[in-house]
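Memo to structure team: turn this sequence into structure tokens by end of day. - J.P.
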Amino acid sequence: MIVMEREIAASALVWLILIFHPLTTIYANLEGDALHSLRTNLNDPNNVLQSWDPTLVNPCTWFHVTCNNDNSVIRVDLGNAALSGLLVPQLGQLKNLQYLELYSNNISGIIPTELGNLTSLVSLDLYLNNFTGTIPATLGNLSKLRFLRLNNNSLTGNIPMSLTNVTALQVLDLSNNKLTGGVPDNGSFSLFTPISFANNNLCGPVTGKPCPGSPPFSPPPPFVPPTISSPGNSASSTGAIAGGVAAGAALLFAAPAIGFAWWRRRKPQEHFFDVPAEEDPEVHLGQLKRFSLRELQVATDSFSNKNILGRGGFGKVYKGRLADGSLVAVKRLKEERTPGGELQFQTEVEMISMAVHRNLLRLRGFCMTPTERLLVYPFMANGSVASCLRERPPAEPPLDWPTRKRIALGSARGLSYLHDHCDPKIIHRDVKAANILLDEEFEAVVGDFGLAKLMDYKDTHVTTAVRGTIGHIAPEYLSTGKSSEKTDVFGYGIMLLELITGQRAFDLARLANDDDVMLLDWVKGLLKEKKLDQLVDPDLEGKYVEAEVEQLIQVALLCTQGSPMDRPKMSEVVRMLEGDGLAERWEEWQKVEVVRQEVEMIPNRNSEWLVDSTDNLHAVELSGPR
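Reply from structure team:
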């Protein structure tokens, strides 16, 4: 009888839920069914989809799934998960999905045309899989799509003309497939990187290969010898110079002009490397523009001090406004000039520009003259994490806890992309709160990546001078000068502690309270005394979830272990922040800590992997921190 009453009560509760929240429940069921259908069609050797339980009404509790406040699925993150199998048409039912990340798996079959129903989609990353068939023309319906990466698959057929309708596209990479036919040539693809179509059997002006049956490309212009002008015919000489890039090149190189014109016809997207920016400031390499120095001088009011956004080891950053009204941040590099270094600088700039991810600061362009090296980035309206934590005006609210969690995850995703998806990989070497920028929606954007490589291109030694900021430098980098992705992991862990505490990584002011100047040691001291509440930024005024704070601290401590081999990879950090594997990793770490404490009881211990972050403090100061 009691059992029957409970069943009746449960049924009544279900009906009440359906009465008061019918649309939400039905919608959640549709999304859950769609995702469960995906799971049943995928082979999952590592059980990353174990939490995708079809008996749960709401898929928002599943790992690798993110929802908005309305419990609608907005992200599915299953990149690099060793999945195989097929995609399902039911994915088209995720009407609010913004990010579909399925890269670096072994998924095969066709790309469902139903993905064209995902009109909220911002990023579709299916690269490094085994997809076959054609690119669905329905993807042209995705008006909000900014990132479309289908490279490194086995796709065939033509590039759909409908993709030219997606004006929001910032990145289109279709390279390393088996595509045929012509690249649509209506100017719509001029903003995309030139390698986007590489290693296919495509033709058209963008590729430099004429299509069968089409007229050949225009022949190079005839060589026009330079005219020596007198004061009376300056107008005619100006007209000759303004006659085009080829004429300008002829004036510069004279005899090789015909050969240069042929080379320019063969590689139309790269000819700006040998043309001074002052002659043709509108030349682009994909989305990367070469600015003239005059253009950036006007934008920054001749690099006025009032426009300085920040100073660092690589140079000063200025706020600027271009002629089209857009705001930019101009980084004026301060390294010494070396003869013959221009080509290498250009190559490194191009490599940096290829690292495109929503959590990485996109390089918009550059400027190079005999005396200047400048990089141009989009202006980040909300500054850096460091400025929001410690330099915000009293009238502005502090970063709330949900925003800080989102910053932690976004910056981890950006660093993971640099380490695992750039070829060659990019090591940041100065990860800190000041280099994590915030866009209009307070989404984390990792800045200053690749600059260490850019500044060291003239060095011939295996190791270079230590670059970094005191309090953020990993011990092995400090002692050997050799950096790896694990040095970035250490810096990221310190940045997490900055997010939680609101404090600086190195602060002499803490000495006034007889505290450690190093943030990591200060945090460890308070944890040892079980004073978690004193760790959290007072600006939060207690508005945080204690369990989530503990989890972020656990991730930070795992990232800042003395031995680089013990630290997780950034891809593992991303999974832990998404709720997968942190408990197991933390339990293993605690066992190691027990052993470490036992070792500490032994007099005159000599443990190389246990490094106090206050060791070698004098060496850090001598290294010239930023």
